[in-house]
Amino acid sequence: MTDFSPMLQPDRGQPARALHIVHPDAFADWLAGQPPRVRSAVAANRVAGKAGERAVLPGEAAEDWSYLLVCNEPEESPWRIASLGTSLPEGTYRLASGEPGAAMLGWLLGQYRFDRYRADPAEPRVLLSGEPARIEEALRVAEATALVRDLVNTGAGDLGPAELEAAAEALAKKHNATLNVTRGDALATGYPMIHAVGRAAAKENAPRLIELEWGDAAHPRIALVGKGVCFDSGGLDIKPAAGMRLMKKDMGGAAHMLALAGLVMAARLKVRLHLLIPAVENAVSGNAFRPGDVLRTRKGLTVENTNTDAEGRLILGDALAKAVEAEPALILDFATLTGAARVALGPDLPPLFANDDALAAELLDASVRVRDPLWRMPLWDGYDEMLKSDVADMVNSPEGGFAGAVTAALFLRRFVPDNIAWAHVDTFAWRPVAKAGRPKGGDALGLRAAWEVLKARYS
Q1: Both 31 and 54 in a single domain?
Q2: Given 94, 125, 296, 313, the catalytic residue
Q3: How far is 92 from 390, CA to CA, in rounded Å?
Q4: Is residue 234 part of a domain?
Q5: Is there a domain that residue 136 lies in?
Q6: 383 shares its domain with 316
Q7: Residues 6+ apart with CB under 8 A from 66
Q8: What backbone torsions phi and psi does residue 81 show, to the nearest 5 degrees?
């Protein structure tokens, strides 16, 4: 994982180059106050005050220089200076005016590297901050985001259910938490849907339910549930090649929940934490579960399997049923669940479903505050009848494809009673196009919003 710790340091007056971050509306006034050498450099670089323009500015001595970025991001945006993490030479920097504040996170994430499969050495760009109390939080969130990115970016040949278990084990050891894992055929009675989805995989990729518990039992219990499909072939309803290309990322929900659990434990929130990750590979073999099979569930419901490629909701159903048994005050689940969510809202905006208006409002408010967008979509009761089956209590995938993200959420709702506050985020966990501080590839979408809510509730 990228080591972010050298990249943010308390400002103790050490030598550093200045970063001039100027809003387009303030550019003319800023330029008017600069010495002639700076105005000449700005003119030579054809900087006219438009967002994104930049220039190296000369100082009084030949070796002295500073840097200008014209930026229309507000001061509270984490992405305000994120582009500078890769465009500047190695060295130490400070803002010419003000403090980086929220932008510390973007500075760090702009220097993220996924280097598991190639050598990509880079000396860190160091940012000085006069707010040392904010550095630790920025580092924690950056490390949590990097964990999601690393896990999602790793190929399925190197990250199967066993490796997800190893990641949870490392987290448990770091924070003195308890880990319990149910594997293979031991799932058949207690977690029959997890077993059915994962049984076709090779022995080394046997399905499992990974559970981590931490914290004082006297504190409110919260459950974090993450979809851990380490590779999704589609099963017997096999995906086309184009649809399978990115399916290493189908464990993105599990990656988010591992990262969120790490944040909870590192901050020692006053909760009793229960992390649940159903980890499987949806493979094809002679014993793969079939279209038309009727699956039993931990809750006792029966599910007619109408599509083996709608497997994520199956494994989540059993995990949610397990989480509910301990009567938590709150359940959050994250999953790369439906292509319909991407059709509806695109790659950058995860849909949020919740059975509790207050919880939904907290998540939406937090998403705006930390610039980690979510968009609430309805648990529309009128579509519940789409889950009707002729032979079982329900189907896993209705015919027709209408409202696919909604019906998937309604399926999950069958496993959570109304008296437990529950939210489901259908995250993409992927950036198809790079943005400042957010390279193409795996990414955490919705993680920071969820973390803000848990901090506010349980600090």
Answers
A1: yes
A2: 313
A3: 67
A4: yes
A5: no
A6: yes
A7: 17, 18, 19, 20, 56, 57, 59, 96
A8: -120, 20
Q: Is the domain of 112 the same as that of 241?
A: no
141-194 pLDDT, tens digit per residue, is 999 999 999 999 999 999 999 999 999 999 999 999 999 999 999 999 999 999
Same domain, residue pair 206 and 115:
no
Q: What is the pTM of this model?
A: 0.97
Query: What is the number of structural domains in the chain?
Result: 2
**Number of CB atoms found within 10 A of residue 348's CB:** 15
Told to judge if 313 belongs to the known catalytic residues of this protein, a careful annotator would answer yes
Q: Which whole-number Å values give the CA distances from 289 to 229, 300, 352, in the listed order?
A: 15, 19, 30
Query: How does pLDDT run across 307-319, given as a tens digit for each residue?
Result: 999 999 999 999 9
Whole domain around residue 99: which residue ranges? 5-130
List, run by run, the mean pLDDT of 10-residue segments along the chain (459 residues): 94 96 97 96 96 95 93 95 92 96 97 89 91 96 98 98 98 98 98 98 97 98 98 98 97 98 98 98 98 98 98 98 98 98 97 98 98 98 98 96 97 98 98 96 98 97
Same domain? 210 vs 235: yes
Only one residue has tokens 């084990």, namely 169
Token couple for 243: 């649809």
Identify the CATH number of the domain in which residue 153 sits.
Answer: 3.40.630.10
Closest of 5, 448, 4 to residue 256, by C-alpha:
448
Cβ neighbours of 450 (radius 10 Å): 27
Residues for the chain: how many in total?
459
The catalytic residue among 183, 239, 369, 455 is: 239
CATH of the domain at 20: 3.40.220.10
In this structure, is residue 244 part of a structural domain?
yes
